Amino acid sequence: MYPAGFKLYRPASLEEALKLLDGFGEEAKILAGGQSLIPLMRLRLVKPSYIIYLGGIDELRTIAVDDGMVSLGALTTHREIAESRVVAEEAPLLREAASVIGDVQIRSMGTIGGSVAHADPAMDYGAVLAAMDGEVVVASVKGVRIVRFEDFILGPFTTRLEPSEMIVKIRIPRHGNWLTAYEKFAVRPGDLAVAGIAVAIRLEDGIIAEARIGVTGAGEKPFRAYNAEEALVGAEPGDAEAYKRAADEVYKECRDAPSDERASSWYRREIAKSLTVKALRRALDGA
Ligand SMILES: Cc1cc2nc3c(=O)[nH]c(=O)nc-3n(C[C@H](O)[C@H](O)[C@H](O)COP(=O)(O)OP(=O)(O)OC[C@H]3O[C@@H](n4cnc5c(N)ncnc54)[C@H](O)[C@@H]3O)c2cc1C
Predict the structure, then answer these.
(1) Coil, strand, or helix at residue 77?
(2) Which of 282, 286, 272, 283 has the alpha carbon at shortest distance from 121?
(3) What value does the mean pLDDT take over residues 2-22?
(4) Mean pLDDT estimate for the chain
């Protein structure tokens, strides 16, 4: 099906885009990579009167390291993130997640800002941004505000974004010196995750001093599994009992895992549990 009629705007600067958004409010939709919005418009599930296409705004296409954070412009594509040397060194979990999103077309067109704004509960970035306490930088004509990723996502396909606001950056603390792994299970290659687990571990004197575990796909929104993290602190790498304790806690914390055509709630929880052990083994093997 063809989308309903709309008027297209192609602002050349962020300032221009924010003014347009402020003027049109709920009648407008931002278009980034179009990988989620265009299918929805073709099905006429979304019928905006105005489309504001961000593709001409170069200042939204940046990867930088500042203040201990890696900062990605909203328009940075999954492929640019997967191929960036800076991301590989400073935010390896983000590189891993970007590498397994969809197929090469989705990765070449889809953007990190679009992914976070779309708020699919199974988005691959979700586990990573939850685990590492990522931030969403949001702008409107009134100014800029920074929201913690886990607070930004309210539930399936719902965020704290106001109609006059857009995402300008996603920020994640540098974690190049942590031991990390992102594990995803999908029914077919290129599909959204049934579940995905991001693990980051910081060792001190050969003991786990800090653990981060983020979950995607197995809840109403991506989240940090705090009880599972606690189950690991004080253990040594290779301690299979500690891995099992953490995985059992992840299972419990996935109590809101949805049932849909891809998987039942029970199956998602079991997958999340086994991915936790797999990710811990990969992150800690040889440490
Ligand atoms: C077949 C298929 C497979 C996929 N597989 C995966 C997968 O395995 N893993 C995964 O994580 N994702 C997957 N996706 C989703 C993919 O990552 C999309 O790229 C992403 O969800 C949307 O990014 P986009 O740039 O294309 O956004 P768009 O489609 O342009 O926009 C999506 C929504 O976000 C809004 N938006 C976009 N940019 C901004 C902004 N800067 N500020 C505010 N609002 C904004 C739009 O108005 C729209 O509501 C898949 C999608 C498809 C179609």
Answers:
(1) strand
(2) 272
(3) 96
(4) 97
pTM of structure? 0.97
Q: Is the dihedral of CA 282, 283, 284, 287 positive or negative?
A: positive
Query: Are 247 and 268 found together in one domain?
Result: yes
Which residue has its alpha carbon closest to ligand 1 atom 20?
Answer: 115
Range 161-183 average pLDDT:
97
Alpha helices per DSSP H over 122-259: 124-131, 149-152, 226-230, 240-253
In a shared domain, residues 157 and 96: yes
Residue numbers of the domain that contains 165? 59-170
Phi, psi of 227 (to 5 degrees): -65, -35
Domain-terminating residue out of 136, 170, 204:
170
Per-residue confidence (pLDDT) for residue 286, from 0 to 100:
73
Q: Whose CA is nearest to atom 43 of ligand 1?
A: 166
Same-domain check for residues 22 and 101: no
Residue type, 197: I
For residues 156 and 134, membership in a common domain is answered with: yes
Give the domain CATH number at 18.
3.30.43.10
Ligand 1 first shell, C-beta below 6 A = 29-37, 39, 74, 101-102, 106, 109-111, 113-115, 117-118, 120, 123-124, 161, 166-167, 192
Confidence category of residue 287, pLDDT binned at 50, 70, 90? confident
- The Cα 195–Cα 233 span in angstroms is 24
CA nearest ligand 1 atom 39, residue: 114
